[in-house]
Design goal:
The structure holds two protein chains of two kinds. By secondary structure, chain A is an all-alpha fold. Chain A is built from 42 helices and five strands. In chain A, the strands form two sheets. Chain A has a three-stranded antiparallel β-sheet. A two-stranded parallel sheet of chain A has the order 1-2. In chain A, a hairpin with a 4-residue loop joins strand 4 and strand 5. The radius of gyration of chain A is 38 Å and the shape is elongated. The two termini of chain A are about 65 Å apart. The N terminus and C terminus of chain A are likely disordered. Chain B has a three-stranded antiparallel β-sheet with strand order 1-3-2. The longest helix of chain B has 24 residues. The radius of gyration of chain B is 29 Å and the shape is globular. The C terminus of chain B is likely disordered. The chains are: A mainly alpha, B mainly alpha. Chain B: Keywords: Cytoplasm, Initiation factor, Protein biosynthesis. Chain B: Component of the eukaryotic translation initiation factor 3 (eIF-3) complex. Chain B: Belongs to the eIF-3 subunit E family. Chain B: One of its GO terms (cellular component) is eukaryotic 48S preinitiation complex.
Chain lengths: ~950, ~450
């Protein structure tokens, strides 16, 4: 959402940014700070009242009668108002800003009540004089306080002071007219509050006259009048400000007046949309209407811009209209700064045009944005020595807008009035354009991401939007180059991070192809235009064209010394590495985590398992990942999944299991729970409804926001398969071994509980059905595997459908790797299970049966002997394994039983004590449950082996 | 030369210590002589050993050394004099050994005393350090050693204490004073490990340890007890980590040290684990031999590798001295494992495997049997060795399974008596048990899996 976009901005200004943002998109109601919303309500309420009143007055003729009835109530209201004003005055005397703040609130509340009544009575629209007088008083006092800043206020007081200052400024815009009049009348603020009843009628007349004047004004007249006003402006510090802002609001009012007039004159109940359409169609006419022509003077353009911004987000102004105005204004732009700022505004208007319901722009809008941004960047590159972007100018303390504008005047009195067209910094002689390019670029990225999330992946539209990624990457590269040039490396790092997030999941071939394609394109451009110097200076591109020596410090920085010593990084990886280094040096912690995960993912994708693993271990992210934010956790899960797949491709069973285990473990190990559902949830690849666990709407919305776009999906089925196959190969030999040695089941190490659970269920079935899904296939394979039928097991595994999700060549090579592993583990399983039925086993027989070379059989069995898994020894001359068998006599077996019982006793005692302590009860329960299941499995397994061999074995206990 | 490590090791050595390595390579004659000389000259350029450089230059080109070199020589001599003047006060005391000894006997050899009676200041000491450093650069290691040891005794607070320790170790190594070097090393190790004193950050610690590991090779392979020392030091967790992250090539030295050391057999398992873990990052014939023997149990392969090991060892500066020992012990290892998994072995085959003729193989085995290191009999007629059959004894089994009972009961008893401590102690038991079964890789993979294992 948009709030995320803002959250990534500068922390220093984020607070104010947010508040401004809420004002802009008031309807979203995202997180509204109290101040703004109350202001807004008041303002809109007022507007409605005004409008209503006007309409009604036109038609209604009985107003006079009604007015009289209300009088008494009104006096009451006024008295309340007056008492508040009195209080305010008192508080001002002792400069207690906290109380002033609450008084101010009360004042506004009272005013609202006042107007509400007016609406009911269909009359009044003039504010009470008391109110105006109060706010003028307050303002004067405010200015005075601001002037002698050296007089220290207490901390809470200062806070309240600032709050009042900001709100008053906003508030006073509404009342500009009246304040001016009030001042001109020379009344002393805070006095003469009791005569407003008499003035009342006269003021209404005044207003009416004025609105008439408004209508007759030509736009040029507006301008000239305003300029005249400016000249006339009194020199006293405070009022100058008021007048300036007042002017803008007045003229914006003028515009809205005219709009109303127009719609009225058409006198049809038109919808806003069709109205806008006509506006679009007749742009020439519109330009006249908006008062924007290309020959506007410089200062006028500025003012116009301010006006447009002021109307932005207000009810009754359409964004499309705004955009149109801005575009017209762009033509009128006189200097570089203006042009760039207008462009910034256009971009931000585009952002606002994204429909709330889907949260992203249309492709057309998006592309327009790209064009604008590109234009800004090009301008910035061309006039590098003249302009620069400023996000927060130290001398400007305004409510900072996300894409702020220079014309937005500060309210602080300490600052000198800024010249109307240029801001000069003392150190830097370049002109400043306000706007955070990095944030804009990030927003573009976010928007595209949301589009991917929102569009159905099977529509051609999705493919269309996918093509936009290329455009975006180019744009980001350009932006990054700019920031690198500007030595604003933190922002460059932010953009680099975005780029990495677009690159990391692509295999090297694709990556290099993409970069080359972009290179060719830029070359073509280069032939035509000469201003493309940036494209060749992009480190990634140039790094690929002219391969440079990998510098030592980079790899040191990465903490991956293997890189420099043992092998040179590949091309695509190098591109990634360069970006990553930038982030490691200058990025925030969060960005660093993202980038390191991306790098690990890419290593894993390119089958560099050990690099990926070492990086992961050195990052220590796995320890704290649970505390980090959600998108990062999803990325971590993706990385782990990819690492697991990488291990799987390498044929590392144990490692595959370690990586995938957590991802593939369902929350409840019930029968119905599916690993796939869990996986999907963890990888954010589709929203899964879990049984017995309803998600709230809010939760679901949140989850939807974090979904991964379709083209970045990992093959869930394949991951599940990899996990289960690895689990099978690790678990079953250990199982049969424990069984052969008659080990107590609780002593056995458990590698994969999920697998055990599935296997148990599978073996429990009296009549196993033919396999249908991945899990069934692997369970069938496991059953065959336990019996020593490795070929059947392999057949089952090879016929799993998930293999089709990767390309055939790699599938066969991976299958081959795993075939070897299955052979080897099959041999071990076989020996564990059946060694007790043999006196000797010949190597030739085993090597034929398992299709392994005699040397390999020898080495495998030797290993088993050394690890004491097998009581046997080689008879070297004949090439046989002699199994040592030893049957205890009666006394011995009794002794053994006794010791067994003893240790059981201790076990029980320990458990008893655990239970008594209370803290450990849970663990005990768990263990008990496990013991039960494990012993069940033992019985099942034993039954299985006896079934097949028709022999019974003596159980020790 | 495929397995030559000079390049990697040289990265972590002091300039002066590379000379012996280069000399060795020169003697081996596997590289082009000119190239080595050139390299040597380059190195000397950056030291103050002008005369040596001039010699090398003459060897290299046959001409007289360039004039700049001679000019630099004068400069060096001048600098040496200036520096010695700067620390004259302290130098006067130190040069007179009787005086120093007398001071030491009176326990007056510390800065405060010297300051009071002879006006020696800290600045003097720092000047002494600089002088020592310069002497080292000129190749006058004995002087450096002497000055630095005095410096270390007098000045304990300085930032440069660590540098002084390094300097002393370097000069001791170069003077081949192995006992002193060993002592320096231990001091250095403590200094690096102790967190507070020099406030090294983890990265610096890693770097210092890497240096220490490399420098210590000189000491360990020359000092009589070094072979034990290397195992004891490198198998410490911190140093093992350093080897794994920064310099896996050290595994060669570690492996050969373990193989040649008969007293540290129990470290073999650890070694196998590490070699296996790092096999993707580093392997050479020696580590491969270990892997072949203890992971794959491939005796033919081990045999081939043993031969490769010999050539590798011959060309290694540090290991050349241990060559015979290594071969003998490796052979023993092969045989031992072979015997453990066989019941009947053909003598001819064995002889071939051990690289011996039949007669000497038989004699060798008989010797082994006689020294009670082998439970076997020789069937001379069938030319077979028959191993004694070990049956698993019931008594052992019973002893094993009842071994833990007493401790567990004790713990139980304690827990009942002190119910307050109950949770703590029982949880330590479970944790201890879990740790034992955990493989190290797993430990590194994170805590969550560990919990699974415990429960």
């Amino acid at each position: 959402m948009t709030s995320r976009f803002f959250a990534t901005g500068d922390t220093s200004s984020s607070e104010s940014e947010r508040s401004e943002h809420t004002e802009d998109s008031f309807a979203s109601g995202d997180e509204s700070s109290e101040i703004d919303s109350s202001d807004e309500k008041k303002a809109t309420g007022f507007e409605v009242g005004q409008r209503l009143a006007r309409y009604l007055r036109d038609s209604d003729s009985e107003e006079g009668e009604e007015r009289r009835v209300v009088r008494s109530a009104r006096t009451k209201q006024q008295e309340a108002l007056l008492s508040i004003v009195q209080q305010l005055k008192n508080h001002i005397k002792i400069s207690d800003w906290i109380s002033i703040q609450s008084d101010f609130d009360a004042l506004n509340r009272q005013l609202n009540k006042y107007y509400k009544m007016d609406v009911l009575n269909e009359t009044k629209k003039e504010p009470p004089k008391a109110y105006i007088s109060a706010i003028v008083l307050l303002e004067d006092f405010l200015n005075k306080t601001a002037e002698n800043k050296d007089k220290k206020l207490s901390k809470t007081n200062t806070k309240a002071f600032n709050a009042v200052k900001q709100r008053l400024k906003k508030n006073n815009r509404e009342w500009e007219e009246h304040i001016r009049k009030f001042r001109e009348s020379g009344a002393i603020p805070g006095e003469d509050l009791y005569e407003e009843d008499e003035d009342d009628g006269a003021e209404v007349d005044d207003e009416e006259q004025e609105s008439e004047a408004d209508e007759s004004w030509d736009d040029s007249e507006v301008e000239s009048l305003e300029e005249a006003e400016q000249e006339r402006a009194p020199t006293s510090g405070g009022s100058q400000w008021l007048l300036k802002t007042g002017r803008t609001s007045k003229s914006s009012q003028a515009i809205s007046h005219k709009e109303k007039k127009k719609s009225k004159s058409q006198s049809l109940p038109q919808s806003g949309q069709s109205f806008k359409d006509t506006m679009d169609g007749t742009s020439a006419a519109a330009s006249k209407d908006f008062g924007i022509t290309e020959d506007l003077p410089e200062s006028a353009v500025d003012q116009k811009l301010v006006e447009i911004i002021a109307t932005k987000g207000r009810r009754g102004t359409s964004k499309r209209e705004n955009l149109l105005q801005l575009e017209l204004l762009l033509k009128a732009a006189k200097n570089l700064v203006q042009e760039m700022e207008i462009l910034f505004q256009i971009v931000s208007t585009h952002f606002d045009m994204a429909p709330m319901t889907i949260g992203y722009m249309s492709q057309e809008n998006w592309r327009n944005c790209v064009e604008c941004i590109e234009r800004i960047l090009n301008l910035a590159f061309e006039h590098e020595t003249q302009v620069r972007f400023v996000v927060n100018h130290p001398s400007v303390e305004t409510l900072d807008v996300s894409v702020p504008i220079r014309g937005d005047k500060p309210s602080s009195q300490t600052e000198e009035p800024v010249e109307s067209d240029t801001n000069w910094d003392k150190n830097d002689k370049r002109k400043m354009v306000r706007g955070d390019m990095a944030t804009v670029l990030e927003h573009m990225d976010d928007d595209l991401f949301r589009a991917w999330q929102g569009i159905d992946a099977y529509l051609p539209e999705y493919v269309d939007r996918l093509k936009d990624e290329f455009v975006l990457l180019k744009l980001l590269a350009k932006g990054q180059t700019y920031f690198e040039k500007e030595k604003d490396l933190e922002r460059a790092a932010r953009i680099a991070c975005r780029r990495i997030q677009h690159l990391y999941y692509k295999p090297d071939d694709l990556l290099v192809g993409m970069i080359q394609a972009s290179l060719q394109k830029t070359r073509k451009q280069l032939e035509g235009v000469n201003n493309d110097q940036w494209s060749c200076q992009d480190p990634i591109l140039s790094g690929l064209v002219y391969p440079e020596e990998e510098t030592q410090d980079e790899s040191i920085l990465l903490n991956v010394p293997e890189l420099s010593i043992h092998q040179r990084p590949l091309k695509g990886e190098k591109a990634l590495l360069r970006l990553a280094v930038l982030v490691y040096r200058y990025g925030s912690e969060n960005l660093k985590s993202i980038v390191i995960l991306c790098q690990i993912y890419h290593h894993a994708l390119e089958n560099r398992y050990y690099e990926a693993r070492d990086m992961l271990l050195m990052s220590h992210l796995q320890e704290s990942i649970g505390l980090l934010e959600l998108p990062l956790q999803i990325l971590f899960n993706r990385t782990m999944a990819q690492l697991g797949l990488c291990a799987f491709r390498h044929g590392l069973a144990q490692e595959t299991l370690y990586c995938l285990q957590e991802l593939c473990t369902p929350v409840h190990t019930g029968l119905g729970s599916s690993t796939v559902a869990r996986l999907k949830e963890l990888l954010a690849q589709g929203i899964v409804q879990q049984r017995g666990h309803e998600k709230s709407l809010e939760q679901e919305r949140l989850e939807r926001n974090y979904q991964i776009p379709y083209h970045m999906y990992l093959p869930v089925d394949f991951i599940e398969m990899a996990h289960l196959i690895a689990a099978m190969l690790v678990e079953i030999p250990s199982l049969t071994r424990a069984e052969a040695k008659n080990e107590a089941p609780q002593k056995r190490k458990i590698y994969s509980r999920v697998f055990q659970h599935f296997l148990r269920n599978s073996i429990r079935q009296a009549y196993p059905s033919p396999p249908e899904n991945t899990r069934d296939y692997i369970m069938s394979a496991s059953r065959a595997f336990i019996r020593g039928h490795w070929k059947d097991a392999y057949q089952y595994i090879a016929s799993i459908r998930a293999w089709e999700s990767i390309d055939a060549a790699s599938a066969t090579s991976i299958l081959q790797t795993w075939r070897n592993l299955i052979q080897a583990e099959g041999l071990r399983t076989f020996i564990h299970s059946y060694a007790s039925y043999f006196d000797s086993l010949s190597v030739t027989f085993l090597s034929e049966w398992f299709e392994l070379s005699p040397a390999r059989v020898h080495s495998l069995i030797s290993k088993m002997i050394m690890n004491e898994e097998l009581q046997a020894s080689w008879d070297q001359p004949s090439g046989c394994v002699l199994i040592k068998r030893w049957e205890p006599n009666r006394l011995q077996s009794l002794c053994l039983q006794l010791t067994e019982k003893c240790s059981q006793l201790i076990d029980y005692n320990e458990r008893l004590l655990d239970a008594r302590s209370g803290g450990q009860t849970l663990k005990t329960e768990e263990r008990e449950e496990f013991l039960k299941t494990a012993s069940h499995w033992m019985n099942a397994g034993r039954k299985l082996s006896t079934d097949n061999w028709g022999k019974t074995r003596t159980a020790t206990i | 030369m495929e397995y030559d490590l000079t390049k990697y090791i040289g990265e972590h050595l002091d300039r002066h210590m590379v000379f012996p390595l280069l000399e060795f390579l020169h003697a081996q004659g596997i590289y082009d002589e000119q190239e080595i000389l050139k390299e040597k000259y380059e190195l000397l350029q950056r030291t103050n050993m002008i005369d040596f450089a001039a010699d090398v230059y003459r060897q290299l080109t046959g001409n007289d050394p360039p004039r700049e070199l001679m000019e630099r020589r004068d400069k060096v001599v001048f600098a040496l004099k200036t520096l010695s003047l700067e620390c004259e006060r302290i130098l006067r005391i130190i040069e007179d050994e009787d005086w120093v000894n007398k001071l030491k006997e009176e326990r007056n050899f510390h800065l405060n005393f010297l300051q009071e009676h002879y006006g020696v200041t800290t600045e003097d000491l720092e000047a002494l350090f600089d002088y020592a450093r310069f002497q080292y650069d000129c190749g006058n290691y004995a002087a450096t050693c002497k000055y630095l040891s005095n410096y270390l005794q007098l000045q304990t607070q300085s930032e440069r204490h660590l540098s002084a320790l390094w300097g002393k170790l370097a000069s001791d190594i170069l003077m081949q004073e192995w006992d002193a070097a060993l002592e320096d090393m231990m001091q250095l190790r403590d200094a690096i490990d102790s967190q507070g004193r020099f406030s090294l950050n983890p990265l610096q610690q890693l770097q210092h340890r890497t240096w220490l590991i490399h420098w210590s090779l000189f000491v360990f392979f020359n000092h009589p007890t070094g072979r034990n020392g290397i195992i004891d030091l490198f198998f410490q967790d911190k140093y093992l980590n350093t080897i794994q992250t920064n310099c896996p090539h050290i595994l060669r030295y570690l492996s050969s040290a373990v193989i040649t050391n008969t007293k540290r057999r129990h470290m073999l398992k650890e070694l196998v684990k590490i070699v296996q873990q790092e096999s993707h990052a580093y392997h050479d014939p020696i580590t491969e031999f270990v892997e072949c023997l203890y992971v794959k149990y491939d005796f033919e392969g081990a045999q081939d590798l043993l031969q490769k090991c010999e050539t590798t060892l011959k060309h290694d500066f540090f290991l050349i001295g241990t060559l015979d020992e290594f071969v003998e012990n490796a052979r023993l290892f092969v045989f031992e494992i072979y015997c453990r998994i066989h019941q009947v072995i053909d003598l001819n085959m064995l002889a071939a495997k051990l690289n011996m003729d039949r007669e000497s193989a038989e004699r060798w085995i008989v010797n082994l049997i006689r020294n009670a290191r082998l439970d076997a009999k020789v069937d001379s007629q069938a030319s077979q060795v028959i191993m004694g059959v070990k049956t698993p004894s019931v008594y052992e089994q019973i002893v094993d399974s009842t071994k833990g009972l007493i401790i567990r009961t004790q713990v139980l008893g304690q827990n009942i008596q002190i119910p307050v401590d109950l949770e703590d102690s029982s949880s330590t038991i479970t944790r201890g048990r879990a740790d034992k079964t955990e493989p190290s890789w797993d430990k590194r993979m994170g805590p969550s899996r560990r919990n699974l294992m415990i429960s």
